[in-house]
Specification:
Order of helices and strands: HHHEEEHHHHHHEEEHHHEEEEEEHEHEH
CATH topology of one domain: Jelly Rolls
Structural class: alpha+beta
Bound molecules: N-oxalylglycine, manganese (II) ion
Number of strands: 14
Strand content: 15-25%
Pfam families: 2OG-FeII_Oxy_2
Radius of gyration: 23 Å
Number of helices: 15
Cofactor: Fe(2+)
GO molecular function, one term: metal ion binding
Largest sheet: 8 strands, antiparallel
Protein name: Fe2OG dioxygenase domain-containing protein
Helix content: 25-40%
Organism: Tetrapyrgos nigripes
Shape: globular
Amino acid sequence: MDPASYKKARRHFLKSTRDRDNSAAHSSDWSPFRVAEKRFKSKFPPPDLSNVLDLALLDPQRIHEINAGGWAGRPDAFPTRRINLFDSDAKGYIFPHIPGLVVLPSFLSHQKQKDLVEWSLSEHSKQPNETNLDIHYILPPEGVWNAYVAAKSDPSLDLHIPPKSSVVLDAFEQYQEQESGPRQLINNTPADSDNFDSLHNVPKLPAAPSPTAHPSSPATLLPKLRWANIGWFYHWGTKQYDFTKGKIAVHSTIRDICKHAVRAADWNQVFGNDSGDAGDLDWGENGPEWMDWNETYEPDAGIVNFYQTKDTLMAHVDRSEVCATSPLVSISLGNAAIFLIGGPTRDTEPSPILLRSGDVVIMSGPACRRSYHGVPRILENTLPSHMLSTDEDQREWELYEQYMKTTRININVRQVFPKGFAPQQHVDI
Ligand code: OGA
Ligand code: MN
């Protein structure tokens, strides 16, 4: 080896061992949740899924979907229990070590999954609902998806969507400074019925539009669509709902699916006397509420998450809702993902679950509803064949198919307030 090559190789060796030492030092500080996130995020080598629960493996009808995607976990990665479902042919599973978590694999029919993709993009991601793109751009009233579809069919309809900053630069002080990205580590106060008044009255400034955004076509903005708000408006800067902006009703399609999922679960098997550890949960002053959920469950807020295959959702707890035990219903569509669910801090080792298109997850009760959870990995190339266009589809589904090839959609629906409760009335009392 000539001296120059030797020097170069040595530099490379020293640098790589130094990097290794540094990362070893860091990894000892990482919480078990962080370690799991890192493991599943890795592209090279791809993650080992042998400890990931994959309930689709128990359903012979899904074997094709699993094989075509090329990713599979295990049906017995950790202990599960089958529960009865009312009024549904699907199956339900609970987990003795995560009381309150219910997974309903393949709860939604293939057609329903396609309908929800269409609803999420075409009907929902537009005014008066808010999306992450609205922070930075003045979107047309038909929303980014419909503008994209129109331009595809007739290029003369293509738009230059203007950035907000070009219009409102001089009003900049009206905005709250915000770092980029939808999720920040903000230690917000958990909402409850005592602090609701003060949370309600805190003025919430809109997030600052990016000063570097420039006029963009719908086709450029579409891959940047990250979330659309459902129901009560969520304020990312403070991680609290902004009740002063009023409330948009949760669309009946979504509301009906969530109510159906909550009614389908046999809650007595989840939380009743024979449910093991779940019997010891602390439900607070109102006592166990699960017995009444058939009447009291009413979704009023949520978010549609759009993940491109490189996107992740870091460990967090959804604690902005006054109802801290009421079911949160989470619908998966498109590409599959690894979902991690841990405990009250990031120090609980999380359990990894492979979620596929059509699966519904319910997080409920005092422990599970406020457990750390996140999505460290979207599994690329796992769009199931029932999401591809068929001969009967109008040409329009081709665009959905193309978009969904690299996308996972999650519709995450919550109950902020007890049924029938209106904040305005509460404030007036
Ligand atoms: C959320 C969430 C989980 C998912 O939106 O708060 O936890 O499966 N989503 O995408
Ligand atoms: Mn969440």
